[in-house]
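User: Fold this; tokens only.

Assistant: Input:
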Amino acid sequence: MSKYVLIGSQGCGSVVVELALLKAGAEFDLEEIPYLEPGPDRDRLLELNPLGQVPTLIMPDGDVMTESAAIILHLADAFPDSQLTPATSDRHRPAFLRWLIYIVSEIYPASTFSDHPDRWNLPSDIQDPYKQTVDEYRMELWRHVEDVADTPCFLGNDFSAIDLYIAVMRHWRPGRKAFAKAFPKLTEIGENVANDPLFSKVLKRNFDR
């Protein structure tokens, strides 16, 4: 195997890694599957990733990586000119690491936990209130990111992978319109990514159907 293979699903967090691979200039194939649907695709995914989640990245040597932030940091090491992360000597490096981990450990789970409330065996009459409560909490979490964000990129003039997360995750519940109303700086960052010819086709394919 001479290139990466990204297993992903339409509109999911795997889109962040697809964009990162493009930014890095890495050779890769995309295998887009309905990752929650039973069948051979999910069976193969479970063999590679016991959690059955995307993104799952098969490395050129056949090893497997999961967890989007880990993949991002790997790609930054493998492709040092990619600008996915600030250099270790860059003054923005601590802020980048802080907010990257904040997004993937706080906001991202708040999205997935409320996508399918039935998985928690909640009574049907409280699933909608549960989803609303978690969605409101997620918006509070995004507020902290908005408060510290710079423009035109999250780190000011310096692009980083955080911009890719914002560009993708703003499409998730409660949706792009509500996100734009609440978070103008983050919306500007997301639009700047969406308008970049390197990324525009991928984002349109995933979110403008």
